[in-house]
Specification:
Chain A: Keywords: Cytoplasm, Molybdenum cofactor biosynthesis, Nucleotide-binding, Phosphoprotein. The complex is a heterodimer of chains A (about 110) and B (about 160). Chain A has helices at about 35-40, 55-65; strands at about 25-35, 45-50, 55, 80, 85, 90-95, 100-105. In chain A, about 15% of the residues lie in helices and about 30% in strands. Chain A is an alpha+beta fold. In chain B, strand 3 and strand 4 (about 50-60) form a beta hairpin. In chain B, helix 2 runs antiparallel to helix 3 (about 110-125). The radius of gyration of chain B is 17 Å and the shape is elongated. Classes of the chains: A alpha+beta (about 110), B alpha+beta (about 160).
Chain lengths: ~110, ~160
Amino acid sequence: FSSGRRRHREPAAEGCPPGDGGSMRCQQVSVLYFARSAELAGLRSETLSVPRQITSLQLWEEIVKVHPRLAVIRDQVVFAVQQEYVLLGDQLLVLQPGDEVAIIPPISGG
Amino acid sequence: MDESKDVPKDFIKLKSEKLSVDEVSELVISPYCGAVSLFIGTTRNNFEGKKVIHLEYEAYTSMAETEIKKICRDVRQKWPSVKHIAVHHRLGVVPITEASVIIAVSSPHRAESLEAVMYCINTLKASVPIWKKEIYEDEYSWKENKECFWANSEK
């Protein structure tokens, strides 16, 4: 048992605001970026820690804190949470660990 | 004759290889159907006076397949006589004149499959998470379908 062992505290989860551990308890979610949002964020996917209960607009703001360049497309995107479309707004999301959240710019299939 | 052996099927595929009209239409052929209707979306060489070099497609694949399955389910509710539905969409680079999407529907009589094919492509453009990038000589542009219900169209 090394006497030089250091104690360390878990750093605050990225994107989770400090505060009470009740409804603000954090959840790891998988965030996927597509098309223009992938270009602006510079990546296609990552794991982010976000509050378990959060409005879709608040979730967007958490993601923009990590990738500020995404701000320019705010008015054009929606989310897909567990593959269901969600508009950016007041809708309350209850996220489970490992839930998939995708940034969906305007689509152009076909 | 035992039509119960010809169970209605949905054939959904997203792939980067060249699409085949023969393959897609053969998937939906049925001895109980007198009609196969087809839509092929191909790459145009121009947009607003600019020369298009090629298109590039990407998709949220798992959700795109789920959304296309929902479209198939809706088709069967609206046109119960529809037998088989096939939707093939290409991903990655699609050169000019090649197909980016092929939709085929079979039905006993032609009205249903013709209407169902139109419904499929119109709804795909409104709801399936697939994105198209148009590559020009000096620049590129992420396209936005006018059917996309959340897009701001500044026209």
